[in-house]
Amino acid sequence: MKKNAKIKHNEDRLYYAFCYTVVTFLTLIVLYPIIYIISASFSNPDVVVHGGVWLWPKDIDLTAYKFVLEQPRIALGYKNTIFYTLVGTVINLVVTIACAYPLARKNLRGRGAIMFLFTFTMLFSAGMIPNYILIRELGMIDTRWAMLLPGALSVYNMIVCRTFIQTNIPAEMLEAAQIDGCNDFQYLFKMVLPLSKPILAVLTLWYGVSHWNAYFNAFMYLNSEELYPLQIFLKEILVQSKRIGPLEDEMLTFSEREHFSEYLYVTLKYCVIMVSTVPLFCVYPFVQKHFQKGVMIGSVKG
Amino acid sequence: MNKKKTFGSLAAIRRDVRRDWQLYLLLLVPIIYIIIYKYLPMGGLVIAFKNYKVRQGIWGSKWVGFDQFTKFFESYQFKRVLVNTIVLSLYTLIVSFPFPVLFALMINSVRNERFKKVTQTIVNMPHFISVVVMVGIMFSIFNSATGLYGSVYRSLTGSNMAPDLFGSAASFRHFYVWSAVWQHFGWDSIIYTAALSSVDPSYHEAAQIDGATRFQRVIHVDLPTIVPTIITMLILRMGSVMTIGFEKVYLMQNSMNLSASEVISTYAYSVGLSAKGVGNFSYATAIGLFNNVINFTLVMIMNTISKKVSETSLW
Predict the structure, then answer these.
(1) B72-104: b or e for each residue (b if 16 or more CB lie within 10 Å)?
(2) Closest Cβ opposite residue B29 in set A48, A95, A299
(3) Is residue B69 over pLDDT 80?
(4) CB neighbours of B60 closer than 8 A, spacing ≥ 6?
């Protein structure tokens, strides 16, 4: 028996070695670009462009950060994004709970029909132009509302929340509470919400991240710069990549005071990537277990 | 006790609604939301059958029947955008579907908990990068003059100029698909690792006693456990084969890769909105509607098939 176990162990060793190698390899592939971006953002632009940076920062140079942090437009984008993320997430949570809590009640009249009203929108949507016309007819073009209201509810998130309430809060508790004279509002605030903290954390994070990264609504519905979220400014710097317009002007003013490399715009991009993504990456390791929990709840059919 | 009202009777309904009025009051908010923001635009779809003029409004504009659709089907763009959409999504599906499954099976075999946790944290991270930043990262790193790719190419080949990667239609698809794999394979594997964690350890013990190697246990114990999840995910993905997200394609688009990167959604945008003021709303709506009807049909078909084949369905 013991000998047998030993042989098996040897056969398995190859498989384990294979798994560790592949997993390590994939992890390094994911990690490397991230490290490179961090290092490049802190390095001298000339060194970066001429291939001097491979892994760690070389010839540390903070001019790009200095420039980015002085940018009024980046600061404006940041401010707007924080506003949209905070207010938007609060709206999302209120609407999601107002929807999920009643629908988690199995004996609610018309539950099936109401559920269908929501799930159907996951399967079929009107599309870009009718949505645009609606927003225009509502007079929401170029207002902050266009960033907050059209996405007030994610039906998928609502279903995850409903499933959580259904499976984690026993029906007997409701009966007991009702006998004690508790109405549905009181039950929601005193029992359901306190017991739903894990799912509320998941929803807050999911909605928060989606607001932070949102680009489409701003792109479609906003015209004035004062309302732009960070992602729109990022697009100008990262994707359009031309050194024209306001960025060019600002670099000119900057050059009057500071001496910098003609390649500053290269590290500038890495730097902008960092500045916009770091908040997410800082929060992420602490909350990742919540995110994963959410995916698992979502995979249980309600 | 003595009131034996049947469930469907009017009195019973009235009683239940009166009992649950607070719940209905709560539901009012999301229902109003969904009607205004999701169903009203569906009403707006009528302009696909009209010749919409802003001044005449949705109802005042002239009916044209299926003219907008025939115009699209007969246009020289039709075949191109349809083929591009299908090729891009099938390519995405084929490449990005197996990765999370294989990764989950392998990470599940890893016994060192700390190693497992660290690798999972790392591979899940890119999922939270925004589309704009993701495209920006690609453009920066693979820039032929100033990026990492440029310097690697120059030092390996000794030439002083690397070929531009974003100026060709051929490379567009590879970048689109492989960047998505890089960004999401870790995150997409969570659902499988979750399913794997529910495997009853006694199966593994029994297999071990019968002399199965770890690899054999992966094939005969682990894999069968996640097959229902795999099927569900596959249906979801197959159903959305024609839905190519607008944002990333649009951001990656340039005049040189248009022959591969013009998909249905970007084409609808370019005829409808990008020509500000002169955009043809009706035509663009018809194109979008065509796309959405196909998506809807595909999900329905895939769901029916899976119900028959595996008794796994989405609803």
Answers:
(1) beeeebbebbbebbeebbeebbeebbebbbebb
(2) A95
(3) yes
(4) B53
Highest mean pLDDT among A80-84, A162-166, B185-189: A80-84
Residues of chain B with CATH 1.10.3720.10: 67-310
Whether the CB of B166 is below 8 Å from some CB of chain A: the reply is no
What pLDDT is stored for residue A245 in this prediction? Answer: 54
Compute the mean pLDDT over every residue in chain A, rounded to the nearest whole number: 84
Q: Are A168 and A153 in contact (CB under 8 A)?
A: no
Residue A157 lies in a domain: yes
Interface test with A, best of B120, B132, B274 (most A CBs within 10 A): B132
CATH of the domain at A201: 1.10.3720.10
Structural fold of domain B67-310 = MetI-like fold (1.10.3720)
Determine the Cα–Cα distance for residues A192 and A174; give it in Å rounded to an integer. Answer: 9
> Do A61 and A43 form a contact (C-beta atoms < 8 A)?
yes
Categorize the per-residue pLDDT at B227 as very low, low, confident or very high, splitting at 50, 70 and 90. Answer: confident
For residue A79, give its domain range: 72-302
Strands (E), chain A: none
pLDDT score of B197: 82
Let me know if residue A64 belongs to a domain: no
Interface predicted TM-score (ipTM) of this complex, two decimals: 0.86
Residue type, B224: P
Q: Compute the average pLDDT of residues B134-154.
A: 86
Could you tell me how many CB contacts below 8 A there are between chain A and chain B? 268
Collect all residues of chain A within an 8 Å Cβ-Cβ radius of residue B145: 49
CA-CA distance, B31 to A125, in Å (whole number)? 16
SS3 at position A35: helix
Cα distance between residue B70 and residue B73, in whole Å? 5
Q: How does residue B5 score in pLDDT terms, banded at 50, 70 and 90?
A: low
Q: What is the pLDDT of residues A254-299, one digit of tens each?
A: 666 666 666 777 888 888 899 888 888 888 777 777 776 776 766 6
The number of angstroms, rounded, from the C-alpha of A192 to the middle of its chain's C-alpha atoms is 26
Using CA atoms, how far residue B200 sits from A102, A215, B203, B205, B207, in Å, is 35, 44, 6, 9, 12
Number of domains in chain A: 1
List the alpha helices (DSSP H) in chain B: 10-19, 21-34, 40-44, 57-60, 67-74, 76-96, 98-109, 113-124, 131-141, 148-157, 169-196, 201-209, 214-217, 223-239, 246-252, 258-261, 264-269, 281-310
Residues 70-99 of B with CB under 8 A from A: none
CB contact under 8 A, A51 and B13: no
Residue matched to tokens 């491979």: A54
pLDDT at position A1: 42
Q: For residue A266, is it within any domain?
A: yes
Measure the CA–CA gap between B161 and A247, rounded to whole angstroms.
27
Q: State the DSSP code for B164.
A: P
A117 — pLDDT class (breaks 50, 70, 90):
very high
A280 located within any domain: yes
